[in-house]
Amino acid sequence: MFTRFFAPTIEVSAHCDLPCGVYDPAQARIEAESVKKICEKVADNDDADFRMRAMIIKEQRSELVKHHLWVLWTDYFKPPHFEQFPELHVLVNEATKLAGASGTKGSFDVATADELLGKIDRIAEIFAETKKG
Amino acid sequence: MFTRFFAPTIEVSAHCDLPCGVYDPAQARIEAESVKKICEKVADNDDADFRMRAMIIKEQRSELVKHHLWVLWTDYFKPPHFEQFPELHVLVNEATKLAGASGTKGSFDVATADELLGKIDRIAEIFAETKKG
Amino acid sequence: MFTRFFAPTIEVSAHCDLPCGVYDPAQARIEAESVKKICEKVADNDDADFRMRAMIIKEQRSELVKHHLWVLWTDYFKPPHFEQFPELHVLVNEATKLAGASGTKGSFDVATADELLGKIDRIAEIFAETKKG
Amino acid sequence: MFTRFFAPTIEVSAHCDLPCGVYDPAQARIEAESVKKICEKVADNDDADFRMRAMIIKEQRSELVKHHLWVLWTDYFKPPHFEQFPELHVLVNEATKLAGASGTKGSFDVATADELLGKIDRIAEIFAETKKG
Amino acid sequence: MFTRFFAPTIEVSAHCDLPCGVYDPAQARIEAESVKKICEKVADNDDADFRMRAMIIKEQRSELVKHHLWVLWTDYFKPPHFEQFPELHVLVNEATKLAGASGTKGSFDVATADELLGKIDRIAEIFAETKKG
Amino acid sequence: MFTRFFAPTIEVSAHCDLPCGVYDPAQARIEAESVKKICEKVADNDDADFRMRAMIIKEQRSELVKHHLWVLWTDYFKPPHFEQFPELHVLVNEATKLAGASGTKGSFDVATADELLGKIDRIAEIFAETKKG
């Protein structure tokens, strides 16, 4: 149920560059979910204008995915995290590439969007691990 | 635990104006949490430059709160929702005002940020109700 | 004649969130006029590239219409205005929807742009009424 | 009275780069009015935080003045206009400088804001002349 | 060779509106080079989706060209420069028009992009002349 | 001399996410030079308003440094580059951190700006190496 998300036991985490200390992989995930839905909707719709609008919005949403992931990589993750999770640099690099020209920006392929979501989930798991410590 | 948020049974909801159908009050809440943390950090820090940076960032984050709430009000909520929840127009209007000049933009008061968070939580509850449909 | 608009008896009204107290429905109207012209030009032009550019720009201009109307709704209009004009919440909500996916973003229909302009004119009338008081 | 501005005999003019053909010096003027009000409000208010917010917003509004004037200079005015009004290049250049570091960005001086408004009014007069032709 | 560009004898020049005093025509040129490459790639690629993406990005990059040139015109160049180089107003005006609807925004023509690059190079030469003084 | 930069033998390199193939570390460097000049100017100027404006602009310019470096890291550098230059992930991560809260955003220290410039120069060297291949 939705409201449980706002229950006090679930920390909504940090992202502004004061830094305020609030980061949350959900920001990238919400945009990536949006990208996936766009791909699905285009698959069900032959209208050329709709496809154009979908392209414009997919471009923006994919860029937001990249931005939110970059923020995590630079502003949240610290050297000890990179030591503890040696895959982290490559993982974030691949995830951001998957939201770019060779990924969701460059195609309407739902599988590509799913692959991106998979990477974001793995980043979210690592993020959750670092929060436990 | 964080990763449960990403469990398949919890729908991450919609927001782009295709519309993709993905909306999520979490977007406004994350920014508002950030605003609150900024207020708390300023209360603990006498440095004038820090206060200036905090002001700049609080201004941006508060604007994002307003934007995400406006998107919900215009793009997600439909006439039947407004009928079912007669408080909704005033609630969103007050919430966005609370993120403006007379609210978190205009002060470093933690109580104001909490009041804003309270409104966002109420909007999230209504949002969750409409999802149950 | 244009220059009369700048005559001292005509108040140019307010919009920044200091707040500076300067708001003006003309901002939304100018963007909506632009949206309408785009629709008219596309109706007269078969070039596919032109249509694409028109789509990109219509998307941006429609978003600006929404933004300017949201600013009026949150930053300019106060509780007494909403009491005096009970239609105001629904009016602004409908106007912003008309600049979205179900409105000018989603089609090149000139009639839709005209409907949006009609709503903005009604908002401008109410705005003018509140300025008299 | 405000609503006369929206009367059908008064053309609301052009600005997007389709181009839609809609341009309007009012866009620059509204932002410049906002800048002036900010300067006036700061003159009446000793609060340091208020001054900081005013600075942030004045910076943004001044940038918008520059942008709207640049758009007129590049997108609206054509070679015959520059021939007919030999002062036009220098006028727009000076106006945009007046909204920059050596103008309203760099000070809270109301007289500077008035000087900027004067230049915008002159540009608006020339604009109105070109519309008559 | 690239690294020579970063050698201490080559001044990287100025652009923020503090002003910091750092301006550089390279900013406009990099975006214009990008616009040209986009035109060339589209000429070699029949895919409709690719053309759409190219259009979206060309629109943004052309806008950046305009912005960087406007910044030079308003923030860097001073009255003595305009006296010394009487062609400067018209040159910058034409260059920004060439990055607009009647230029690179409005077509995928490589020759148009080259014409724009030519104007930027002439502006860069004048810029370099003013730096010598 | 400046104009040599525009000589045909020096490739101005790539950055948009078509991708157009044009990337250039000069974009990050220009912004970082600007940040350094801002720090120097503040050191020579006691005016509180000037410091505030400097803070606002330094925040924006530092963010641009981060953005341009992120684009290189995600869009330009490919797996073979990361293999050939094992320091690259950490180098870009450190450089972007140096343009953030713990770096140039968080202080007016000229030495910090210099440290950032040093990292950017190293990235530019690696970039130049990959172009030779």
From TrEMBL, chains A, B, C, D, E, F:
Enzyme Commission no: 1.15.1.1
Keyword Oxidoreductase in annotation: yes
Entries under SUPFAM superfamilies matching the protein: Nickel-containing superoxide dismutase, NiSOD
GO molecular-function term, one example from the UniProt record: superoxide dismutase activity
Domain of life, source organism: Bacteria
Gene3D superfamilies: Nickel-containing superoxide dismutase
Assigned keywords, A-Z: Oxidoreductase
Main EC class the enzyme belongs to: oxidoreductase
Name under which the protein is recorded: Nickel-dependent superoxide dismutase
Lineage: Bacteria, Bacillati, Actinomycetota, Actinomycetes, Micrococcales
